[in-house]
Amino acid sequence: MTVSLFIPCYVDQFYPNAAIATLELLEKLGVKVVYPSRQTCCGQPMANSGFEHLTMESNNQFIENFREFDYIVAPSGSCVLHMKDHLHSGKYPNESESVRQKVYELTEFLTDVLKVNSLKARFPHKVGLHQSCHGQRGLKLASMSELVAPAFSKPEQLLSMVEGLELIELTRKDECCGFGGTFCVAEEAVSVKMGKDRVMDHLQHDAEVITGSDMSCLMHMEGILRRKKSNVRVMHIAEILNAQEL
Amino acid sequence: MTGDTKAIKDHAALADAFNADEPRVNWHDETLWFIRQKRDKAAHTIPDWEQLRETASRIKHNVLSNLHDYLLQFESNAKANGIIVHWAADAAEHNQIVHAILQKHKVDRIVKSKSMLTEECHLNDYLAENGIEVIDTDLGERIVQLAKEPPSHIVLPCIHKKKEEIGDLFHEHLGTPAGMADPQVLTEAARQHLRETFLTRRAALTGVNFAIAETGEFVICTNEGNADMGAHLADVHIACMGIEKLIPKREHLGVFLRLLARSATGQPITTYSSHFKKPREGHELHLVLVDNGRSTQLGRENFRNSLKCIRCGACMNTCPVYRRSGGHSYHTAVAGPIGSILAPNLDMKKNADLPFASTLCGSCSNVCPVKIDIHDQLYKWRQVIVKEGYADKKKRLGMKAMTQAFASPTTFQLAGKAGRWFMRNVPFVVNNNLNPWYKQREMPAPPKESFGEWYQKNRKKTDE
């Protein structure tokens, strides 16, 4: 099995540790991992702003980069959802279909494909899990508070395998953080207010670390935490699942 | 199109103003979140909740696919019951029809129970211009009417007002003691004032929640009984409905009445679900069927199922953006997520901002009792709005530049070294006060190397 890593552009640029942890974690689990180096951006920022018609080139690039692999795994529910919902190509109609089907968000790849049931990881901290909407409601990584349906959570299932980790409860367990792509600047006031409220929920429940499967939400919350001069850190879930803290 | 050129404040600007008072935003958010929680509790009492939603969605799908036939069936049955049926192509015609009925009866003051359709048509303003006084009888609507404001929510019209503010309004208009903010006292004052009004008005206007094709009757749901009070005490009852309010059979009420109040407020059912079938002896019952853009929306394949909406307001209560921007920031009769997919159909230019007033979190679609794919439609409206040329020029240029930079992996990698390219080109990471990201958030600290660079050094050799 060869897995190709799809690393979102902003993770590549700002959060390389999340990507390194993803790579190391997959390698630890015995997977051969390749990072196709010609990747840039999945086109989501343009598409969510109403410019999906400009993403044809990035779609073709994506297919060229990834079509040869068995699986495509990304540490981001949002980018994966975008690919699953909107990857189309006039140039490669059949391949776009097959690529859409083999893109996975990291946690679902671990629970559903690798069927991981134990991890050699230790992270003795109080951790708050931020459920990013596109992963949760879009990719159905976890049950949603709006629906009358059995409870489950792929990220929580994995975090429960980490030694020493204490997962805190939140008052609003799946409210949006307000990042929303270009929403974060176009609707600055509401975006920040949503972020402050989300962060406050974690702080009130004594989180030391806020984690999640989307670095974009965490980047937004980190921006707010750092402006508040808070010591609470954000970490991608891959960094925790890959952690070996004493 | 009115053709006016003055700049109208968009959702972002109005929401920014709303956020100037943070404790008030907290209060607004918590009030609506409380209702969302009541909704959750009510939904969880029904194990088949999701199946009920699916059933409602499919019934409405059938209605929309056969709307023409159901409308004719409804009209003929309603007429046979003695209801006088009118058809209005748009808001203007609706308003003229209502006015003509009132003129015929020489009525210059009426009572009106809740109707978002009449808000959409701006009926109150039209009638006022024509010398007809309208008193809204739903308590929340009466409050915003006294405040000279539009409703901020389709089910909870004055949810943006604190009880102290309502006390001040009542002190001014209804003579309650200054500083009195006890909800029970205020409600009693409104009740006395409205009772006098009900007894002296000869015409009553109401909305319609469900119209039944099979029987030609219609159902109005209220908690206050104000629709009944108005309709039963007046000589003329005028009911106004959008053409999408039809359901095929009376038995389908068993699906919709179970969903409506639970989704709206968490109640099992509204206090009153009143059936109107025929006029009483010597009285007149009019029904106005209004299109006002609905057939256009029905023709938009991607947006037609927005017409399934039963106006419960659940999408507003759950929407984290609505809760923190207030209904008036949406500058349209129907606010929130559902309003943002309905309004561009009515006026794409004026409402071009609304589909962007969302993070696309998807909570709205999950609470919707008729399973409208609201957040997907928001995404699709964005594409339409940009293609029709309603995106602002700065954004258009920015997006093109970003696309070009991403189009070349070489440019991206060279330019991207340790985040320098990102610093200049990605909108949220410019470290100065002109940047909306930086106003209340720190920017991410660029690391010394990108993942791509790290990979070249640490793994690439072993790959090859």
TrEMBL record, chain A:
Pfam families: CCG. One of its GO terms (cellular component) is cytosol. Transmembrane segments: none annotated. Residues 3-84, 127-221 form the Cysteine-rich domain. GO terms for molecular function: oxidoreductase activity. This is L-lactate dehydrogenase complex protein LldE. It comes from Pontibacter ummariensis.
UniProtKB/TrEMBL annotation, chain B:
Pfam families: Fer4_8, LUD_dom, LutB_C. Keywords: 4Fe-4S, Electron transport, Iron, Iron-sulfur, Metal-binding, Repeat, Transport. One of its GO terms (molecular function) is 4 iron, 4 sulfur cluster binding. Residues 299-329 form the 4Fe-4S ferredoxin-type domain. The keyword Lipid metabolism does not apply. GO terms for biological process: lactate metabolic process. Residues 441-464 are annotated as: Disordered. It comes from the Bacteria. InterPro entries: 4Fe4S_Fe-S-bd, 4Fe4S_Fe_S_CS, FTHF_cligase-like_sf, Helical_ferredxn, LUD_dom, LutB/LldF, LutB_C, NagB/RpiA_transferase-like. This is L-lactate dehydrogenase complex protein LldF. It comes from Pontibacter ummariensis. The lineage of its organism: Bacteria, Pseudomonadati, Bacteroidota, Cytophagia, Cytophagales.
